[in-house]
Amino acid sequence: MRRWISICILSLTCFLVLAGCRRGDINIQSDGEGGLDVSITWTEAEVNTIVSETLAEVGNPLLRNPQVNFQDGHILVNGEHSQRDGNGTVSGSFILSAAVQNGAILLQVTDVQIEGVDLTDERIADLNARLSQQFNQRAERAQSRAFTVQSLVITDDDLTLSVHLQS
Q1: C-alpha–C-alpha distance, residues 160 and 143, integer Å
Q2: DSSP type of residue 89
Q3: Residue 117 neighbours by CB under 8 Å, 6+ apart
Q4: CA-to-CA distance for 60 and 32, rounded, in angstroms?
Q5: pLDDT digit string (tens) for 88-146?
Q6: Are 159 and 131 spatial neighbours (Cβ–Cβ below 8 Å)?
Q7: Domain extents for the chain?
Q8: C-alpha to C-alpha distances, 45 to 19, 109, 123, 145, nearest whole angstrom
Q9: CB-neighbour burial class of residue 22 (10 A; exposed 0-12, middle 13-18, buried 19+)
Q10: Which of 50, 72, 125, 167 has the most CB within a 10 Å radius?
């Protein structure tokens, strides 16, 4: 009976992870102790959606029409910036560095190439917090278990998260 309950919980958790992520290539393996090791791989298009949605949440986003470009170890985001004086738009970009901190995804703008904006701009701190929150929410859809991000790797082709769901 106990084994049957464990199988049901494992199956339900797999369903929640798959349903919650909705996107990305997912690989799930049991850790042999009732937990799960999950690998989630996102494409540039999938990450572009997350970045676009996050930027759209603020009234005057740093960039409009963002385009994500994975580069080994970081994400380059290009787009259009509305000038503060109202005289149109200019091209701009920023680099997102990603890391794992205390079992969660941490994203930070580490370089900004937008006219009139630097790393001390309060919009950068707000964007860092919003992006980290969005990425963690997208990755963490199985609320019934303790969720720990173990690693995050960005290559020219994809972004891969390794997470552990504890029993």
Answers
A1: 20
A2: E
A3: 62, 81, 92, 123, 124
A4: 48
A5: 888 999 999 999 999 889 999 999 999 888 888 888 999 999 999 988 888 765 444 57
A6: no
A7: 1-167
A8: 19, 19, 24, 29
A9: exposed
A10: 50
The SS3 of residue 67 is strand
**Strand locations in 62-165 (E):** 64-71, 74-82, 89-101, 104-113, 147-154, 159-165
Distance of CA 87 to the CA centre of its chain: 33
φ/ψ (deg, to 5) at 46: -65, -40
Amino acid letter, 70: F
Q: Identify the pLDDT of residue 22.
A: 46
**Which of 133 and 4 is assigned the larger pLDDT?**
133
Percent of the chain with pLDDT over 90: 45
Q: In what order do the strands lie in the sheet with 159-165?
A: 25-30, 36-42, 159-165, 147-154
